[in-house]
Amino acid sequence: MALPNLTREQAIERAALISVDSYQINLDVTDGHGAPANRPSDPPPPWCSTRSPAPTR
User: Fold this and answer.
1) Using CA atoms in the order 50, 54, 55, 57, what is the torsion angle rounded to 10 degrees?
2) Cα–Cα distance between 7 and 56 in angstroms, integer?
3) Cα-to-chain-centroid distance, residue 38
4) What is the DSSP string of 13-50?
5) pTM for the complete prediction?
6) Which of the 8 DSSP states describes residue 51?
7) Do 57 and 51 meet the contact criterion of CB atoms below 8 Å apart?
8) Could you tell me if 37 and 31 are in contact, meaning their C-beta atoms sit under 8 angstroms apart?
9) What is the pLDDT of residues 1-56, one digit of tens each?
10) I need a labelling partner for 41 at 20 to 30 A (CA). Which of 14, 15, 26, 31 fits?
């Protein structure tokens, strides 16, 4: 069962009680079956823009 979300005030109170010096992230970049998620020859997914943003002036 998931815990309910905290209000902003509750989150501030909880954050005052704990401290974090470091953390570890495990990132799975496989396709879910152990193979690489995509190969360099695969086209980028449709949501991935390969264009550079327009320069701002």
Assistant:
1) -160
2) 38
3) 18
4) HHHHH---S--------B-SSSSBS--TTSPPPTT---
5) 0.33
6) S
7) no
8) yes
9) 777 899 999 999 999 999 989 989 988 888 778 777 776 677 777 777 666 666 66
10) 26
